[in-house]
């Protein structure tokens, strides 16, 4: 859940990375529930959002943050990336640009093994790079 950091540091229990504050909540929620839950938290004058990821380094940071709280990173770690408004057109809930992607080789598959309308939201995925 990043939010820009201005002339203050991140609140207690939040971690700063490149001017944004992040926090992992180890609770089981659907994407919509997680999105609403994040919005209940304020950082400065803005509501928190699910994390938007814009680089490999930020992807690793978010993964490491979660893994430091829950070793062996659990499934269902939601990001703010989704195609709820227009199928196949991904956007971040914080309105930032969709300038980085790191999909699993078969993704996005629009739920070929489920109902397509049920796969509109994106979970974090990480694979260690050997290079």
Characterize the structure shown:
InterPro entries: C-type_lectin-like, C-type_lectin-like/link_sf, C-type_lectin/snaclec_domain, CTDL_fold. The chain has 131 residues and is of the alpha+beta class. The protein has one domain: Mannose-Binding Protein A, Chain A. The protein is built from two helices and seven strands; from the N terminus they run ββαββαβββ. Strands 6-5-7 form a three-stranded antiparallel β-sheet, with helices on one face. The chain is globular. It starts with 14 loop residues before the first strand and ends in an 8-residue tail after the last strand.
- SSE string, helices as H and strands as E: EEHEEHEEE
Biggest sheet features: 3 strands, antiparallel
How does CATH name the architecture?
A: Roll
Number of H/I helices = 2
Question: Beta fraction of the residues?
Answer: 15-25%
Judged by helices, strands and strand pairing, the structural class is alpha+beta
Overall number of domains: 1
Low-confidence stretches: none
CATH level-1 class: Alpha Beta
**What would CATH call the homologous superfamily?**
Mannose-Binding Protein A, subunit A
Mean pLDDT: 79
Strand order of the largest sheet: 6-5-7
Q: What is the β-strand count?
A: 7
Name the overall outline. Answer: globular
Termini gap: 28 Å
How large, in whole angstroms, is the Cα Rg? 15 Å
Helix content: 10-25%
- The CATH topology assignment is Mannose-Binding Protein A, Chain A
């Amino acid at each position: 859940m990043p939010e820009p950091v201005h002339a203050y540091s991140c609140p207690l229990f939040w971690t700063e990375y490149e001017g944004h504050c992040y926090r992992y909540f180890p609770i089981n929620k659907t994407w919509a529930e997680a999105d609403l839950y994040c919005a209940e938290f304020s950082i400065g004058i803005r509501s928190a959002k699910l994390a938007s990821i814009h680089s490999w380094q930020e992807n690793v940071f978010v993964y490491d943050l979660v893994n430091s709280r829950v070793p062996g990173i659990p499934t269902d770690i939601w990001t703010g990336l989704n195609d709820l408004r227009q199928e196949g057109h991904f956007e971040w809930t914080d309105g930032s640009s969709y300038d980085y992607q790191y999909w699993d080789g078969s993704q996005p598959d629009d739920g070929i093994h489920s109902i397509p309308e049920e796969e509109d939201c994106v979970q974090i995925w990480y694979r260690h790079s050997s290079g």
